[in-house]
Amino acid sequence: MAVPTPHINAKPGDFAETVLMPGDPLRSKFIAENFLENPVLVNNVRGVQGYTGTYHGKRVSVMASGMGQPAIGIYSYELFNFYDVQNIIRVGSCGSYSKDLHVRDIILAQGACTNGNYASQYRLPGTFAPIADFGLLRKAVEACEKRGLRFGVGNIFSSDMFYEDDNSGMDWAKMGVLGVEMESAALYCNAARAGKKALCICTISDSFIYPEEETTAEERQNSFTDMMEIALEIA
Fold this sequence. Notes:
With 235 residues, this protein is an alpha/beta fold. It has helices at 25-35, 69-82, 134-147, 169-173, 184-194, 217-222, 225-234; strands at residues 18-21, 37-43, 50-55, 58-63, 87-96, 106-114, 151-158, 179-181, 197-207. The chain has one domain: Rossmann fold (3-Layer(aba) Sandwich).
């Protein structure tokens, strides 16, 4: 496929080697305007804003993924395979299943469980386990430790349903899964298939253990700056 693609109207070379990928287009805009020097809008198809600028002299891009595995599956596939992007770092929000993690703590997704069917396309005679790139993960752990942040490393659950009828989330928690979001498994699958690197860094926006802890939509858009800075540092 030639570029522009059906979903990204950027030109060849418009994206940096590393792309930060929040779900929310407004979070993409926030990162570009508050952390990047001289950001340039390189994509705005369907309002999915992508920018490229520099961070401490290093060229970096940020573009939204939308919600869910089908959405991030499209955007990360096109970035990896048609725009020569080497690393995608998801910076998102998640719900916590862990009694040791609270709202605004960070989860570094070492692996991604899912109830979705994304990996079935690879025709594998078994179950594929999507995992992060260890190099990116190790750098993220070091950055969190250096900053003295509260964080957990482990499995995350990429659910295809936000409103789940049987409310099975805590069954995943019994298996040590730290939290739930909706994108990481597809991102890790695409990275594996393309021979590229990916990592998911999530800030906890709400807790299934401590339901009194929560954040607003505006806070999720604008205040989860620790994970943004970690992602930019390891970029």
